[in-house]
Write a structure and sequence with these properties.
about 80 residues; 4 helices
């Protein structure tokens, strides 16, 4: 249950009755990327449990910004992953 009290206003999230009451259809597909998929994507990084599309950043900053330590790290990561 998503609540920590005895009475919770939310229905069980994985109950078929919840899906029916909200007119949802469970299509049994996982949302997200596998490690194999991310490794094939250009300019996608995984940090923690999140996948980041860094293409817009590298389009704006194709060369290293020497005064920016985070940029230097990102540029190195990008070069070693391609």
């Amino acid at each position: 249950m998503p609540c920590s009290v005895d009475t919770c206003p939310l229905p069980p999230i994985n109950a078929s009755s919840t899906y029916q009451s909200l007119s949802l259809v469970n299509i049994q597909l996982l949302a997200g990327y596998s490690g194999d998929q991310v490794s094939q994507l250009t300019n996608y990084f995984v940090l923690g449990e999140a996948v980041y599309n860094m293409a817009p950043y590298f389009s704006l900053h194709p060369r290293t910004i020497s005064s920016d330590q985070v940029d230097r790290i990102l540029q190195v990561m990008q070069k070693t992953s391609s």
